[in-house]
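Objective 1b. Sequence-to-structure analysis of Flagellar P-ring protein.
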Amino acid sequence: MHRFLSATLAILFATTLAASASTIRLKDVVEFDGVRGNDLVGYGLIVGLDGSGDGIRNSPFTEEIMSNILERLGVNVTGEQFRPKNVAAVFVTATLPPFARTGSKIDVTVSAIGDAKSLLGGTLIMTPLTAPDGEIYAVAQGTLIAGGATAAGDGAAVTQGVPTAGVIPSGARIEREIEFDFASLKTIRLALREPDFTTAQRVETAINAEFRRGVARMLDAGTVQLDIAATRTPSPAHALGIVENLLITPERKARVVVDQRSGTIVMGEDVRISRVAVSQGNLTLRIQEEPLVVQPNPFTDGTSVVVPRTQAAIQEEPGIGLAEIDDGTSLSEVIAGLNALGVSPRDMIDILKSIKAAGALHAEFVVH
């Protein structure tokens, strides 16, 4: 019974989606042009590890950055030989959110770049984070929270998760703001996350109904332009505060998504199948070698001989006989019928591929 669980859950999920075609807020459908985050990256050092850091001989850049930090702190290490095992070189990444202000804190992700075994319990030393323009926009520092564990002995080792990467919640403080005069914008473009002409037209209609005709204009399947001055609001922020809460019903393409590893099948409500006949069966070929050793007669000069013995068999397991699917049948009905016949999810995926190849499945077919 459990082998049909994935397909059954997929059918229930698709049925629920079809039954609840409700309206969605505009903020969950579009992105506002110019209102986005910016990527930051830095190169730093983790200290305080329990002997699981970089091997300095294999990671010379770790020794270099550690020397630079000690020099800045007034410790002269020129010509000294040190081989600590409790430090590790890391890359620090973060995203500077839109409208972030100086003094605000953001989360950072820390990843080892050397041969460190684990970053558990480590502390990130003050690391500047730069943007593609080369300017420093934030400084990160704090105790790392790693998402894994490792244990090792003389003869074996076990690792769970990824102990060489982790996060520091609120681990970076913003030191510089990105200059963006949002209040002076005259027009703003709304970019649809999934471009569609029907959805874009509905966005245009909803905005014009809220303000007045001509405020919004659809440019293409993925863009709607909003005239801020025509909204008669005090500022662009006030206009977007109204626009992002408008409700629309987005249009979805007919799509079937299958995951071959787990046997999951997810489909939209608009998927249709033309008239087609399906026949499916499983063919199994078994070959088994059982060599036979023949011994010579007693008191003779003969030698033992290995005689090959091969058993070969072809077995065709019962599958689906010739079944005919009527024109206009929904895919959820087909999956439900196959599931009732005891067809495994993986066989269902093969059948759907064949139906798509025959040109009878009218939907985008996505395989993961």
